[in-house]
Write a structure and sequence with these properties.
Layout: H1 2-86, E1 100-102, E2 109-113, E3 122-126, H2 138-148
Antiparallel strand pairs: 1-2, 2-3
């Protein structure tokens, strides 16, 4: 009978040891998983913080240059707009300044050639370019194409009501 009790005790100990090892392995796997998640999140946070720090440093370093560029570009635009208004009075302007009318957009000037002398010879749509490229915008190209194709007309719009 003692042998049976001893045999049951050995079998029970083996089962308990096996169950303990299985639980221990499960616990170790879960702990490793949790640790990896934590380490991954920590690394993500560190990378994010580093990226934010680098961005702040870049912003501080580049802000003055960006502002200076913006001011220069704004100044260039303003000089261009002023030039568009004053170009009829510059030396080398091929038309009589009295014949030029500023429109601004989509064409800078309309020149009524000869109008100030009393004999209108031609109407010219004039675009002034002061920038480096001198390229026409899409709207300016559309106006040029309409004029070149002769798609221009004269109309009188009367606001007077006949009673």
């Amino acid at each position: 009978m003692i042998e049976w009790a001893l045999l049951l005790l050995v079998i029970g100990t083996i089962l308990l040891a096996w169950r303990y090892l299985a639980l221990r392995m499960t616990l170790d796997r879960r702990a490793a998983c949790l640790f990896e998640e934590w380490r991954s999140q920590k690394m993500e946070d560190e990378v994010r913080e580093r990226a934010e720090l680098l961005h702040r440093e870049w912003t501080l370093r580049e802000e003055a240059r960006v502002r200076r560029d913006a001011i220069e570009m704004s100044g260039a635009v303003i000089r261009g707009k002023v030039t568009e208004h004053l170009i009829p009075y510059f030396p080398g302007f091929s038309y009589d300044p009295r014949d030029a009318r500023f429109l601004g957009t989509p064409v800078d000037l309309i020149v009524f050639e000869g109008l100030s002398a009393g004999s209108l010879e031609r109407i010219t749509f004039l675009e002034v370019k002061t920038g480096k490229t001198g390229a026409l915008s899409q709207r300016e190209r559309q106006v040029r194409e309409c004029v070149e194709r002769g798609l221009v007309r004269y109309e009188v719009h009367s606001l007077r009501r006949d009673s």
